[in-house]
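Handout, section 4.2: multi-component inputs.
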Amino acid sequence: MADDAAFRAFVETNGAALLHAARLLTGDHHRGEDLVQTALTRVYLKWDRIETPLAYARKALVTAHIDSTRRRWWGERPTETLPEVAASQSADVGAADERDELRRLLAGLSPKERAVIVLRYYCDLSEQDTAASLGVPVGTVKSTCSRALSRLRVEIGVNS
Amino acid sequence: MSPSEAQLRAALRHGEGDSPDAGVLISHAVRVRRRRQRRIMSIATGTTVVAFVAAGVGVLVSLGGGSGSAGGADSAAAGAGAAVHAPVRAPAAAPSVSKPDSAASSAGRYVAEATPGRATRLACPSAPAHYALPGGGGLGAFGSTEKLFVRSVAAMKICVYPPVPARTPLSTVLTEPAARKFAADLESAPARATSARPCPSNTAAVGSELLVLAVSTDARRLKPVVITVQPCSASQVTNGTAVRYLVTLPTPVSRLLDSALRLRPASGQPANGSPSS
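Output:
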C-alpha cells in the first residue's frame, strides 16, 4: 500500500509543475488535467517501488501523452480544425504577446518535439535526463530539440 | 522574432496554476487498483475453470480411448486373419462363450478367473489370425526371438478353434497372475523346433488353433498371438514375427482344447457352443 502522506506531500510539491507540463504537452487545459491524473495515478500505484518519483512522474507524463496521440482504430479521431484553434486564429495575433504566440506555436509541434521542448525548457532537464525520460538517445534529443526550435523560429518569422 | 531560451522558458512558465487535489488522485488510483485486481481475479478464475474443464475432458477422452482401443484390437485380430489368407472356418462371427472354470480351479497351476474384466469383454473372432510368415513358415526360415508380448500382460482371452469348427469358438479368460505366468511360459519356449518331438497325448487336438488376445497392464491391447497345434512336433506360437515352439501345451491350452473337442459336433452337425456340457 502506498504511503498516502508522502504521496500527498509529493503532489503538493510537484503537482503544479506537472499539471502545467501536462497542459503544455497537450495544449489543452482539461486534457492536461486528465494527463496529469493518469501520470500521478501510475506514480501512486508504484509508489513503493520507485526511487525517484518526480522522474518517474515526468516519464509517465510524456509516455502517456505520446501514447494518447497515437491513432487507434477504436479511439477518437481528431478533427482538422478545433474550435479553440479557429477562435485563436480568428483573433488578432498581433494583440497577443510573445508568450501567447510561443504557446500557440508549441501546439503545432509533433508530440515528441513538444515533449522535448517542455522537458528541456520548462522542467529544466539536461539533455541526458530528457533522453532518459523519453527513452531515446541523447543525440535524438539534440536533433529533435534543434528541429523544434527551428520550426518555432520559422513559424514566428512567417507570422511576424 | 527569434525566440531565445529565456523567452521560451518565460513563455512556458507563464500561467502555472495550482497543484491537483491529492485526495482525488488517491481515490482514483484506489479505484484503478481494485479494477485491476478484479480483472486479474477474473482471468485467474477463468483460467482455472478452463484448466479443470480441459483436465476433465482429457480424463474422459483417455477413458473412452482405452475402451475404444480394446474394440479396435478386436477388429485388428479379426482383420489379421482376413488380411493374409483367412479360411473362414465358421459361418459368421458370434458372441464368444466363456468356459466355466470348474476344471481350471482344480488345476492349481493356472487359475482361470471368471471375474469380468477387460479381457472378458473381448470377442473371439470367427477365425484366428493367419500370419503369412516369411519362407512359408517353415522351420528355420523365420523365427524372430523378439518378445511375443511387447508389454507386461495383465489379462488375456484365449479362443480355441478345433479342427472341426464349432458354431461358436470356446474361450477362457486368464487374469493376473495366471495371465502373466502363461505369457512368460510362452516367451520362454524355444524359438526353434527341437529335435526331440514327443507327440501330444491328445492327437485329436492336432490342427487346432488358439488365439491369445492379451491386454497389458496399462490397458492396451497387444498383438494377437496364434498357437497352432502341430502333429508330433512342437506347436507353433507366433504373433507374426516372433516365433516360439511348445513341446507340451500349457495347462490352460490343453484344458481348453479338451473342452472344445468334447463339444465337437458329429459329422455335419454343428456344436451348440455350450462349454458346460
